[in-house]
Amino acid sequence: MSVTSYQTLNKGELTQLLDVARDAIRSHFSDRVPQPPRLDLYGKKLLRPGACFVTLKVAGELQGCLGTTVAHSPLVLDVHNKARSSAYQDRRFMPLTEEQLDTLTIEISVLSPPAPLAVSSEQELLDYLQKNKVGVILSDNHHEALFLPQVWQQLPKPMEFIRHLKAKAGWNSTYWSPTLTVQTFTVNSISGKYEY
């Protein structure tokens, strides 16, 4: 068994993680020196190594989304670090400004360990995804792309979902290779408005 044991988090634990993310962002706009969360304030599940993504939206539009699929530090610290990174280091966006805080929404996604999915064709993958709306990672030849399960809300058809995921990896829509690997995962997630 790996060091990481994925366990479902309850609403209280997810709410604690949302508060950690809010505080990580809030500290950037205060006079105090940013501090990581005090580990002695959290339960065992939040102190285990965990992998997460933190997604930020301003007025409903993506503002930042960074994370990892590999658990390497206590989950509570990973959420703190990913919240700051999503707000100020996602190169696709300008850093978050104080003016954006009124319409800021934060979403925390705690990932299960990715599991390999054995498929021999794109059609086989599409058939699987028709029944399983999971997170997907496609990898091949030094290219990789990931979509969280929440992306199904914007791209509900498997063909469309995979086409966009391929584009994210830098492949054309017909790309398929015998060496392409597919991994799937699930998430525990919570979303909430930024609070001052």
Question: Any overview of this molecule?
Answer:
Helix content is 29%, strand content 24%. The protein has 196 residues and is an alpha+beta fold. Strands 2-1-3-8 form a 4-stranded antiparallel sheet, with helices on one face. Strands 4-7-5-6 form a 4-stranded antiparallel sheet, covered by helices on one side. A hairpin with a 2-residue loop joins strand 1 and strand 2 (61-67). The termini are far apart.
In summary, what is this structure?
By secondary structure, the chain is of the alpha+beta class. 29% of the residues lie in helices and 24% in strands.
Q: For the largest sheet, list the strands in their spatial order.
A: 2-1-3-8
Instruction: Please report which band the strand proportion falls in: under 5%, 5-15%, 15-25%, 25-35%, 35-45% or over 45%.
Output: 15-25%
Q: How does the overall form come out from the CA principal axes?
A: globular
Task: Evaluate the radius of gyration.
Answer: 17 Å
- How many strands appear in the DSSP assignment? 8
The termini sit apart by 41 Å
- Helix-strand string: HHEEHEEHEEHEE
Uncertain spans = 1-5
Mean of residue pLDDT values:
94
Q: Output the structural class.
A: alpha+beta
Give the helix proportion (percent range): 25-40%
Count of DSSP-assigned helices: 5
> Main sheet?
4 strands, antiparallel
